[in-house]
Amino acid sequence: MSVAPMMDWTDRHCRYFHRLLTRRTRLYTEMLHAGAVIHGGTERHLRFHAEEHPVALQLGGSDPADLARAARLGAQWGYDEINLNCGCPSERVQRGAFGASLMKAPQRVADCIRAMQDQVDVPVTVKHRIGVDRQEDYGFVRDFVGTLTDAGCNVFIVHARNAWLQGLSPKENRDVPPLRYAVVHRLRADFPGITLAINGGMDSDALVQEQLRALDGVMVGRAAYHNPWWLARWDALYHGGEPCPLTRDGVELAMLQYMEREAARHGTPWPHIARHMLGLRHGLPGARLWRQVWSDHLLRELPAQAVHARALQSKMPSL
């Protein structure tokens, strides 16, 4: 099980929160461009908490030399995996000729994989789509995966939708192109020696369990972010471990303590952290009022402890 890399969401604060809920699920950074990692403040981009392991660094880019340098830095900082993004469909990413557009240049991706593997001892993996635009020829994704396996890549995370590079926003690309799980299952049959995980539309235990009967792993994105308490069951359900020992109140208290430490050490405003836990009480009575307190911009100048007290009060029934 893993939580997907999600731009503007899976930063180190989000990953710290998720790690309170599950000890064994693999966590991913949001996509970081190789050039930014090298030239844009390496520590700012790569710093993470020791508690986050196992944690993977997802890189974006198309230059083998830059990706190799960024991968080496990621390994030096202690990441457990380096993942290359070949699935993002945004216009900005397309202008940089990386993300999903790289699927149209499999030999270049193979060069990138080899360059990164030459620099690190941790696994170098790929996350990609099943096709580009409205091309639904299975041979396209089969040949893409085949080219990369020849280059030495043996772990693939497949978002089971096409990436439409024209006419859809990144948000629409997460919903409009149809899910085609059968394509990923066909890859499993054609490449029995690789590790194959599936991503896209995973929002229930029943669906996750169905996919795990056919594949090696499942990556969950938005459902994990919006309903994070689901993660509290994953260690017991999917990793042979114990469920999360904390209650929701215990998780909130741990996050409050984390906010206070981050404010003291780095000057991090508590709203930058609290935004990631707004789904913690999803589906419970009083969740809306609790969420409103933690997201109220008028309270942002108060210390996190005072906001926590108001949030607790919001859960209590009116007298």
UniProtKB/TrEMBL annotation:
Interacts with tRNA, annotated site positions: 85, 171, 174, 288, 291
Record bears the keyword NADP: yes
tRNA processing recorded as keyword: yes
Top class in the EC scheme: oxidoreductase
Active site: 88
Pfam families: Dus
Family label: Belongs to the dus family. Belongs to the Dus family. DusA subfamily.
Full protein name: tRNA-dihydrouridine(20/20a) synthase
